[in-house]
Amino acid sequence: MMKASKSISPFRLSSLLRNQKDPALALQLFQNPNPDSNPQPQKPFRYSLISYDIIISKLGRAKMFDQMEQILGKMKQQTHLSPPEIIFCNVMSYYGRARLPDRALHLFDEMLSFRCVRTIKSFNSLLDALFKCGKIEKMREVLEGIEDYGTPDACTYNILMKAFCESEDLDDARNVFDEMRSKGVEPTDVTLATLIYKLCSVDRVKEALELKEECERVHGVLANVFVYASLMKGLCGIGEMTLAFELKDEMVRKNIRLDAVVYSTLISALFKAGRRGEVSRLLKEMSEYGCKPNTVTYNAMIHGYCKEKDFEAAYGVLDEMVKKGCRPNAISYNVIIDALCKEGKWSEANLFFQDLPRRRCHPGVLSYRMLFSGLCDCGQFKEAAFVLDEMIFKGYAPHFARTHKLVEGLCEEGNMELLGTVLSSLEKANVLDGDTWRVIISTLRKEKPSDVFELIDTLTIQ
What we know:
Oligomer: single chain
Order of helices and strands: HHHHHHHHHHHHHHHHHHHHHHHHHH
């Protein structure tokens, strides 16, 4: 008689679940931990809280919410278990990322039935989930009952400030900051970073600098690299280059490691200020500090050279990127295509675009739209029609304004055969709108009324 395999213990199950990368297989294991055990009736498997936590996390990260909620229901029935609050905090976070605010609200309301007490931690998780879902008014409504769960902490205030900043309600964000301090809750580096980023994005840079100084002096909250990068970008945006570089020097004095974002911001600003000659010094400094240029850094240089119409230098940056092992991305190429088209170098732009596959870059919808728009603006309607056909074949839709420019140009040229082909392609892609027909009729009436009948004949044949 064959001996039955040894049963898996709750501890062993949690270990197996943790090591299983596939959430579907992990679920299968959880639901049937002992498939080869003796088929005779036995006690139900006694799952541990660790096993529940692991499988819920795996299913939540995989957005397998129906299965996850089945496991939650099973856990609720295990009356001997009292799940910790963190499990529900994590689940609400998964709901927030998936834009499922109603499920987050429902879970928060159900926590007591799981024998779990709600505190400010789970309340913060609910607030954050609602914020990620863009439910600002619902956040305000939920806040009215905050006293039932504890005293607002720094995390509560930070979530509220982020929400108000993102909804362009900076004054409310500042009010939350003032309330935070009046209640004796110390700001954190997240508080500082959130407010300064938003202040700088709306050119309230002086206010941002004062906030940085106040937080350092009064609250002992030191600015991190993200705060410095935001301030430098804001200062460069209003032309205060000297102050931006002084902040960089301050970072060095305070032993705050400068990263590629900081240098990329300054390089971009130097180009905008017409000081490209200083870029090489900054790149040398980067190397001395052991900071490697990344794609953002190189793209800032490409953009700068293109603005100065120095396309050879822009191509040189692409070559340097490849040599240094930093692969150019779609933005690297799109900047050049756009600049060439705006400069009227449509032929060069077209050749560069055709060369992208050799450069191991497969052009996306933005690349196609830029080239198509550029060709239309340059009056190269035949080439634009070919690009349009390829776009539609790949499932990319053009902008209506540029499509109208193309059909208008073909009407003016009297190229009814090509116009018919373009209209047929647009119709197949379901992007032939009434405005396009109005452009055609209006242009032909004005330019060549007789071509209306030729166009009808062409479309009939097709």
